[in-house]
Amino acid sequence: MLKAYFSIRMRAAERSPELGEKHISGGERIGSKSQIEPIVSQLLNKASNHPRGDADFIQITVEKIACDRILYMPPLEVTTVETASIEDGRSEARKILTSVGVSKHALGVAFHLLGSIQNLRGAIILNSKTGLRLDDRGLKGIRVSRIDWQDANENLNERVREALALASKVANSPFTIAELCWSDDPDYVTGYVSNRDIGYVRITPLKMEGCESGGRIFFVSDEVELESYINYLERVPVLIRRD
Ligand code: WAQ
Ligand code: MG
Ligand code: MG
Ligand code: MG
C-alpha cells in the first residue's frame, strides 16, 4: 500500500481596528499520518508569540493528498549577498531581476507593492514585462501550498527551509520568470530573489528593521496560463529532495 500523506496548513490572524483582519502568520507542510501531531504543534507554535501580533484566530487544516500526484524536485542552490544598506540590497535585487528579463517598469511596481503593503497573506502575480497584476485575489494573494521537504532534518533554520522549499516549487514552473520576497515580520530583514537559473539568492538587508511591509511577487511570462499556474502553486503537492 502506498504511504498516505497529508497537507497540513495554518493561518493566523488578529482583529485590528485599522485593517479589519491583520495577517499574522501562515504555514504549509506535508507529512505522513504519524507526523500530523508534531507538525500541528510546530504550526501552532509558529502562530503564537509572533512579532506581527497576538493571533486571535488560528485555523489549521489537515487534508489527505493523493500521493500518486506528488512531484519531487531538488532545492534551488543557495547563495547570500551582504550589502551595506537597504538601498544597496534593493539595487542588487533589481540588477539581478533585470538580468533575468524583468522590466524596469515591473520592478518599479513590485518594489512599490512590497514596500507599502503591510497585510498581504499570499503572493502577487505580475507580468514581468508590463508589470500588470494578473491575479484577482487582493490582499489574500496566491498562497503556495502543499509544499515541504521530504526529509525534515535538512540542516537549515526553519525560516530558510520554508522559503527555499517555496521558492523551489515556484521556480519549477515554466511560467515563472523570477520571484522577489522579503518578510512582513518586523524583525527579519533578509529577503531573496530566485529563479531556476540564478537559484535562491539571499540578500541582506532588503528592508528596514521594525517595518511590517513585505510579501512575495511572482514575475511571469506572457505565455502564462494563469489558471493552471495558480492550480500548480496552490494544489499540486511537491516534496523537495536533493538528487
Ligand atoms: N505562498 C505565497 N506567499 C506567501 C507564502 C506562501 N506559502 N508564505 C508567505 N507568503 C508571502 C505573504 O505575503 C507574507 O506576508 C510574505 O510572503 C512574507 O512571509 O533565506 O519569512 O513568512 O533568510 O514572513 C525570506 C528569506 C524570508 C529567508 C521570508 O516570509 C532567508 C519570510 P514570511
Ligand atoms: Mg508567515
Ligand atoms: Mg513563511
Ligand atoms: Mg511573515
UniProtKB/TrEMBL annotation:
Keyword list, A-Z: ATP-binding, Biotin biosynthesis, Ligase, Magnesium, Nucleotide-binding
Cofactor(s) listed: Mg(2+)
Q: What enzyme category does the UniProt record give? A: ligase
Provide the E.C. number(s) assigned to this enzyme: 6.2.1.14
Ligase among the record's keywords? yes
Q: Reaction catalysed?
A: heptanedioate + ATP + CoA = 6-carboxyhexanoyl-CoA + AMP + diphosphate
* Record text on subunit structure and interactions: Homodimer.
- Supply the NCBIfam families for this chain: bioW, PRK01322.1
The record's family statement is: Belongs to the BioW family.
Functional note: Catalyzes the transformation of pimelate into pimeloyl-CoA with concomitant hydrolysis of ATP to AMP.
Q: What is this protein called?
A: 6-carboxyhexanoate--CoA ligase
What is the source species?
Cytobacillus citreus
